[in-house]
Specification:
Blueprint: E1 9-10, E2 14-15, E3 32-33, E4 37-38, E5 55-56, E6 60-61, E7 78-79, E8 83-84, E9 101-102, E10 106-107, E11 124-125, E12 129-130, E13 147-148, E14 152-153, E15 170-171, E16 175-176, E17 193-194, E18 197-199, E19 216-217, E20 219-221, E21 238-239
Parallel strand pairs: 1-3, 2-4, 3-5, 4-6, 6-8, 7-9, 8-10, 9-11, 10-12, 12-14, 13-15, 14-16, 15-17, 16-18, 18-20, 19-21
Length: 243
């Protein structure tokens, strides 16, 4: 891609997906796209620091590339639509990710993330945050301060436990913890605020905390665990939909 790309001004969408682009010039940050910018399905292995200045009026699609890391400058990127970073090779997220502001959904599923930075608690996402199908074995203590306006997907990871702070988590729609390795839940779990459905299916839960009675959700999915009994407090559980 030539340096002159910086002079390009696109009023609507710019679609460059499914090509063989392997790099982006430093001048890329000066690009202005009024609609969606699609760079998915290329061979990009890194992003220039100048991406912080990129102006995109809609979605930014960087999925299906070969990105193994994100620049610290990603924190200054302002996306009005969705940010697609799924199906890359991301091993970690920069500490600056907490300063990122995305007006829509942030897709980070199907990468190789093994941990999340403490700064994740400050991340501002207007819609869904998808961290499913990674390699997360634990979550930072700060996760309890995270507020997700849409749904939070943590399914398909390797989580064996959740921090006590998890009970302070606020999720506007769905919280998916299915297909992990959870053997137990923290006592604070009953304080979680989930607007719609809570998925805990396909884990290794053999018991539930007494605090489960305080949980208020629309639907609760506990199928395919190892539960042989339920706590006495389960009778006080309020589920608006199905259990």
């Amino acid at each position: 891609m030539p340096e002159s790309i910086s002079s390009l001004q696109v009023g609507s969408d710019l679609d460059l997906d499914a090509n063989q682009l392997s790099s982006l010039p430093e001048s890329f940050g000066s690009l202005k796209v009024g609609g969606n910018l699609n760079l998915g399905g290329n061979q990009l292995s890194s992003l220039p620091e100048s991406i912080s200045s990129l102006q995109v009026g809609g979605d930014l699609n960087l999925c299906d590339n070969q990105l193994s890391s994100l620049p610290e400058s990603i924190s200054s990127l302002q996306i009005h639509g969705h940010l697609y970073l799924h199906r890359n090779q991301l091993l970690s997220l920069p500490e600056s990710i907490g300063l990122l502001q995305s007006g829509g959904n942030l897709y980070l599923h199907r990468n190789q993330l093994s941990s999340l930075p403490e700064s994740i608690s400050s991340l501002q996402v207007g819609g869904d945050l998808d961290l499913g199908s990674n390699r997360l074995s634990s979550l930072p203590e700060s996760i309890g301060s995270l507020e997700v306006h849409g749904s939070l997907y943590l399914d398909g990871n390797q989580l064996s436990s959740l921090p006590e702070s998890f009970g302070s988590l606020q999720v506007g729609s769905k919280l998916n913890l299915g297909e992990n390795r959870l053997a137990s839940l923290p006592e604070s779990f009953g304080s979680i605020r989930v607007g719609n459905t809570l998925y805990l299916h396909r884990n290794q839960l053999s018991s539930l905390p007494e605090s489960i009675s305080s949980l208020q959700v629309g639907n609760l999915n506990l199928d395919r665990n190892r539960l042989s009994s339920l706590p006495e407090s389960i009778g006080s559980l309020q589920v608006v939909g199905s259990l």
